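New to this. Help decode the following:
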Amino acid sequence: MSPQTIMAVGGHIGDMDLAAGPLLAQNVLDGGRSVLVALTPGERGHPRMSATDYREQKIAEARAFAAGIGAELVVFDDISDGFLTADDAVAERVADLIREIRPTTLLAHWRRSIHTDHENASIVAERGRFLAGLPGWKDETARHGVGRLLFTENWEDATGFDADLFVEISSEAHRLWTEAISGQAFARGETYGFRYIDFYSAQMITRGCLAGVPHAVALSSGRTWGMAPLD
């Protein structure tokens, strides 16, 4: 994969860490810039901790994860888990980030999900991309058009997801991601017991089988054009 500036927008801390983390790690190894954006901390995801305490833990885990794969991190910690709205107030904040970071590729949730925050995050990412490239909006000199919007593979966003892009993940990127994601309590299954690390590790192997490589991450362009490299 050629080096790019990739910005991955998720509804909660952990979403893009799982679905896009290996790809973001690979991009950094290839000389690119990777930025994780969480639109909420995801603080209501622990059955035994208070939202306040888990929020602090989640943010600390997110910082450690980003450092582990060499990525940057932005958290909208003033928006509460479960209450993310798909309005222009949030989309404009994403657009401002896009104009600041100037990504070549934007990653977002698939449009359909069992989680409303994920669906709203997808809408906000697309709307933010539109606003960032809109002529005559805010500072014209900062205008930035993102060349490619791609959707990540998340088990909560499976309805209608049709992978048409596979990105090979090297053994080193896989190792970095595995070590980094192991620092997140929910990914280890300590919240509701779902084996996130096992699931996404197996998914990389499965997608690698289809792509003819040891490990791969699948993405969707929202079209059905067949397989193509991310480059």
Summary: DSSP finds seven helices and seven strands in the chain. The beta strands are 5-10, 33-38, 72-75, 105-108, 148-152, 165-168, 216-220. The two ends are 6 Å apart (CA to CA). The first strand starts at residue 5 and ends at 10.
